[in-house]
Design goal:
The chain has 9 helices and no strands. It is an all-alpha fold. Helix 1 packs across helix 8, helix 3 runs antiparallel to helix 4 and helix 3 packs parallel to helix 6. The longest helix has 40 residues.
Amino acid sequence: MISFLGLCIENFIQTIKYIISGNLKRDKVISRAAMISYDSLPIALSIVFIAAVVISLQVSKQFLMTGAESYVGGFLAVALIRELAPGFAALAISARAGTAISAEIANMQVTSQVDAIKTLKVDPIGYYFAPRIIAGAFTIPMVVVLAELFGILGGMIVAYYAIGLHPNRYMNSVWLWLNTRDIYISILKGFIFGIIIPLICATQGYKTKNGAKGVGISTTQAAIKSTVFLLMADMIITLIYYVL
């Protein structure tokens, strides 16, 4: 994992150089953004919505028993914005779009398309990595914000039908507990996750060997490694902004 992380950093530096050189095509970024975030939007929103509904079901009656039902919205909003929405949305995108990135680049590698790019004197790292990293970095935070809104809405619906909590009281507690700093940090998490997912998965795909069998192995490894690095990044960000 350490050597793989070093390879990812090396590829990221090379990608930055490619972007600075001005060779990046806007249409490629837009198409990759659609593939990474837009196509993954339904599953990401669904997962966060369901998670919010389950948590709301779990805590609503407990809060009601202690007379703190007015704080259900605030509790859920903090949990969603600080942790659940960025984490679950990123994992959903990684499972869907990240594995697709790895499989696509792995297939190009084993069919010698990467070698063909090199013969044209084009940097394959920058050519394949840059559009995906830029697309992920700027669109995954948007998915995170939408997921937070959907989660808060789902919790409000459940609290209303489970314990009769009026939406006004629910939203008042959301605004009472919510901190703009938490929103900024969640967007920052989305930005960092948007870099990590395509970088890890593209790197894994780029180092593929052994034909079709290697493509399958790389796709599996991309899913595992992206999940591990996403959780590690999440832990580090939380330690920096909420503990230290």
